[in-house]
Design goal:
The chain has 257 residues and is α/β, with parallel strands linked by helices. 41% of the residues lie in helices and 18% in strands. The protein contains nine helices and eight strands. An eight-stranded parallel β-sheet has the order 1-2-3-4-5-6-7-8, sandwiched between helices. The longest helix is centred in the middle third of the chain and has 18 residues, at 105-122. The structure holds zinc ion (2 copies). One zinc ion (ZN) is lined by residues 6, 8, 36, 93, 204.
Length: 257
């Protein structure tokens, strides 16, 4: 059994055939999924999908790319309310994204910090989005003492040393499609070094499809390819890798089987 810890089944790319995509995931033994909503359009849909499927859960947060549209009063209350929903298992994704120049860094940091503070208040773990901002993400997590709630570094793309810093901060490390790319030396190195009890897998579908689907639409069934590559890199049985990562995710999200 596998657990895709980060999937956007609520994205437009799945509007036509979402149920078939989910059925294909179940056929591949991808039993559990967390659908991530990150703005006003995707959050209600994440909840709706989680309500429709017993083994699908939701995470809600505000994406850093869209930080300038975060209305503090309105949206913090909104996230707080939704966090009480029985299928909401984490806050996020939140974080910093220095790749797309859509929200100034200081606003991104501010909205990130406010969401960490909310997470501490309601005692939910957080899911971190980080693009080209690893050092700043780590210093915000340190400053805000995010280790008290812990969380996931989703689609981790830093160095082994940065991975170790995140682990020391009580974070899990989730790997996605890029670990399967032939030229992804650093991610493969990280994949070998993550403590087994902190290792998670995801697709981030519809984005970042693993090899051999690179560039195509990704879907949760393909998390099997991520698991196979990590198993190969670590010299573990595929089944064992699936078992370990699923057990980690169930425990992390507080899901009782
Ligand atoms: Zn992300
Ligand atoms: Zn995402």
């Amino acid at each position: 059994m596998l657990f895709d810890t980060h999937v956007h089944l609520n994205a437009r790319q799945f509007f036509e055939d979402r149920d078939e995509v989910i059925a294909r995931a179940f056929e591949e033994n991808v039993q559990y999924m967390v659908v991530v909503g990150f703005d006003e359009e995707t959050i209600p849909l994440a909840i709706e999908i989680a309500e429709a499927y017993e083994s699908i859960y939701a995470a809600v947060g505000w994406h850093p790319v869209d930080a300038i549209h975060f209305d503090e009063k309105k949206h913090l209350d909104y996230l707080r309310q939704l966090s009480e929903h029985p299928k909401v298992v984490a806050l996020g994704e939140m974080g910093l994204d220095y790749h797309w120049d859509t929200s100034p860094k200081n606003i991104q940091k501010d909205i990130f910090k406010k969401q960490i503070s909310l997470a501490k208040d309601i005692d939910l773990p957080i899911i971190i989005h980080n693009r080209e901002a690893t050092a700043d993400v780590i210093s915000v997590l340190e400053e805000e003492q995010a280790s008290t709630v812990g969380g996931i570094m989703h689609c981790f793309s830093g160095t082994v040393a940065e991975m170790k810093q995140c682990v020391a901060l009580n974070f899990h490390i989730s790997l996605a499609g890029p670990v399967t790319f032939k030229n992804a030396k650093e991610v493969k190195e990280v994949a070998r070094e993550i403590p087994l009890d902190r290792l998670l897998i995801e697709t981030d579908a519809p984005y970042l499809a693993p090899h051999p689907y690179r560039g195509k639409r990704n879907e949760p069934a393909y998390v099997t390819l991520v698991a196979k590559e990590i198993a190969r890199l670590r010299g573990l049985d595929y089944e064992e890798l699936c078992h370990i990562t699923t057990r980690n995710a169930l425990k992390f999200f507080g899901i009782k089987k």
